[in-house]
Amino acid sequence: MDGADTGSFTHSVTRIATVSIALGIAVMVVSFAILHGFREQIQNKIFSFGAHIQLSRYDTSNSLEVAPISEPELRRQLLRYPQVASVQSFARKTAIIKTTDEVLGVVLKGVSEKYGPSAMRQNLVAGKFPTFADTAASNDIVISRKIADKLRLGVDSSALFYFIQQPPRIRKFRVAGIYQTGLDEFDEVYVLGDLRQIQELNAWPDSLVGGLEVRLRDFQQLNPTFDSFYQQLPYEIRVEKITDQYAQLFDWLQLLNRNVVIFLILIIFVATFNMVSTIFIMILERTKMIGILKSVGATDNQIRQMFFFRGLGITLRGLVIGNIIALGFSALQYYFKLIPLDPENYYMDRVPIAWSPVVFALLNGATLAAGLLAVLLPTILIARIKPMVAIRFD
Question: Which of 24, 55, 80, 297 would bridge 212 by S-S if both were Cys, CB 3.0 to 4.6 A apart?
């Protein structure tokens, strides 16, 4: 049947069907790679500030500054859970930054790298993350690009922090690095510093911290782990999921998922419709041939198999071409970052790509299944074709 297609109207329609399938699978693979990459980047930025689960002491006020909790025993309890990957201590304290020309209210978040490097390192765009010594509290801080621009601060600049407490305290810090997440929830509010600075300001011993951030080995275990913590940890400990703390961001990501799924269903429908049209045209152009084959004893199933394998060949050719295009484009963007983005609007400086073999296999499987269904539907007409009528068909 390949040779008979050459130069015929069916040949042109077959090419259109192949291109349709190729473009469909290419768009789907690239769309999911970008969506998965975008979701992964946003989630990593959120997790870098709050891990997966955050523990603190129950407090009736809505202040970011809460009563301290004892770290050592609670840490030992948490590390007994096999799904816990790491536990980081933190504390928060509100402050006012004053420079020569500007004044800005911020939240100083004290972190400790005693139990491993901070996840915030991935967001650095200038300078370096402070090295916290074991002997004394470090005066180095990391500020966001937005705060740096508002206060006209750069790496190695100094700034005075005023802490509203009794008695009021003033600290002079040095900007060691600048971070950027693109998320206003963090960039407009947080300054990172040494946890011991907050412990000294609050007159806390080393064993007291503002809270603990728990990072899990698998994000999919968030809900069951949260339930376990809620039921088994002491009643005075508040347990918060990151998805509840930043519900708007996660709801927005979920909405993006639904929109992309609807878009991809439409693409599969268009590719399937083109395949149905192609097989219909092939059957109509070969009505006389079908009549002759039936007159010499060919069964409907044998003729259906001819068109089925022809349609299967078109579908597989489209899948191969489409996957080559999609993987080629994704690889170029992943390694060479060809398409930039405005971080102010998209929260990142380039189009992200994330590889997911499972999604890749599912997309190809769904497209192949839809293509085969599209091939089978028109072949039902073959049983309705009468040999004598078909032979005279012109």
Answer: 55
CA atoms of 214 and 224, how far apart (whole Å): 14
d(CA 190, CA 210): 15
327 near 31, Cβ under 8 Å? no
Same domain, 22 and 153: no
Handedness of CA 328, 331, 335, 341 (dihedral sign): positive
Same domain, 72 and 149: yes
Instruction: Name the amino acid, one letter, at 21.
Output: I
Q: How many CB atoms lie within 10 A of CB 133?
A: 10
Instruction: Give yes or no: residues 84 and 197 share one domain.
Output: yes
Which structural domain range is residue 230 located in? 59-235
Phi/psi for 103 (5° steps) reads: -135, 135
Confirm if 78 and 212 have CB atoms less than 8 A apart. yes
> If you ran DSSP here, which 8-state letter would residue 354 be given?
-
CA terminus-to-terminus distance, the chain:
19
Whether the CB-CB separation of 366 and 268 falls below 8 Å is answered with: yes
Q: Is 289 helix (H, G, I), strand (E, B) or coil?
A: helix
Q: Does residue 243 fall inside a structural domain?
A: no
The token duo for 266 is 């439409």
Amino acid present at 120 = M
Place of tokens 């911020």: 106
Q: Can you spell out the DSSP letters for 29-81?
A: HHHHHHHHHHHHHHHHHHHHHH-SEEEEE--SS--S----EEHHHHHHHHTTS
Determine contact, residues 183/149, Cβ cutoff 8 Å.
no
Task: Tell me the H-state helices in the chain.
Answer: 2-5, 9-50, 71-78, 145-151, 184-187, 195-201, 222-232, 242-245, 247-285, 287-295, 300-336, 343-346, 357-379, 387-391
Read off the pLDDT of residues 297-335 as tens digits, 9 standing for 90 and up.
Answer: 888 888 888 888 988 999 999 999 999 999 999 999 999
C-beta of residue 377 within 8 angstroms of C-beta of residue 276: yes
Question: 167: cis peptide before it, omega within 30°?
Answer: yes
Report the predicted TM-score, pTM, of the whole model to 2 decimal places.
Answer: 0.83
The rounded distance, in Å, linking the Cα atoms of 111 and 120 is: 10
Number of domain units in the chain: 2
